[in-house]
Amino acid sequence: MQFAADVDRRAAIVFVVDDDASICAALSSLLRAVGWQVQTFESAAEFLAHGRPDTAACLVLDVRLPGTSGLELQRTLAERGDGLPIIFMTGHGDIPMSVQAMKAGAVEFLPKPFREEQLLDAIGLALARDAAGQRERADLADIRQRMASLSAREREVMVLVVQGMLNKQTAARLDISEITVKVHRRHVMKKMGARSLPDLVRLFERVHVTP
After folding, report:
1. DSSP state of 9
2. Does position 144 have pLDDT exceeding 70, yes or no?
């Protein structure tokens, strides 16, 4: 479980969706024994009705479920923009099914019965992946908040500066003085928390390149 080193195990949550109550109970016992929080569900609908916590999490999901299947639940989460990492388990899996699940972003596809170590390692990887995604989203939200604090003119100056325009060129494009450009540029650097021009470009590109 080396992949979970950066994850707060006490806060992390493992969701288990399986219509077999005995499997839910067994997995719940195993995962709690290693320190993870666990929440179990008997159907995809029950899981979808449950809110997503603001902490690292992953989903251990049976492929064959009553009603909405595991693969259909994976598609539903993707359509919602929910990147919750998924570990599939099945007693009836076949190669096309596993390929479909992995192509859609599943962390692992485990045929039952599987070794406990396989599941624990997969969960460790999934939780680390989700924690990294949460940090990335938090960083982007912070950058967007800083960008929102800029005035309209400061945003105009920033766009031209990151495009590589000199102060003189920016002044000519915006029909303002070069001194005014320098003032706006200082404000932009301070508000964005950028230490250098390359740093400002990196911050700008992270927001505008990320979907």
Report:
1. T
2. yes
Rounded Cα distance between 126 and 6, Å, is 12
Same domain, 182 and 117: no
For residue 162, CA distances in Å to 96, 166, 202 come to: 47, 10, 9
**Which residues span the domain enclosing 57?**
2-137
Residue 9 in contact with residue 36, Cβ under 8 Å?
yes
- Summarize the confidence of residues 111-133 as an average pLDDT: 90
Q: What whole-number distance in Å separates Cα of residue 168 and Cα of residue 185?
A: 12
**Is 179 in the same domain as 202?**
yes
Close Cβ partners of 165 (under 8 Å, ≥ 6 residues apart): 173
Q: Which residue has the tokens 């927001």?
A: 207
| Statement: residue 8 has pLDDT above 70 | no
The token duo for 114 is 């599987």
* 159 found inside a domain: yes
Residues 102 and 159 grouped into a single domain:
no
Instruction: Give the integer Cα–Cα distance in Å for 185 and 197.
Output: 10
37-93 pLDDT tens trace: 999 999 999 999 988 777 899 999 998 888 888 889 999 999 988 889 999 988 766
Q: Which of 137, 158, 180 finishes a domain?
A: 137
pLDDT tens figures, 163-175: 999 999 999 999 9
CA-angle at 183, arms to 142 and 147, nearest 5°: 15
* Model confidence, pTM: 0.71
Q: Pick the last residue of a domain from 75, 110, 137.
A: 137
Q: What are phi and psi of 109, to 5 degrees?
A: -130, 105
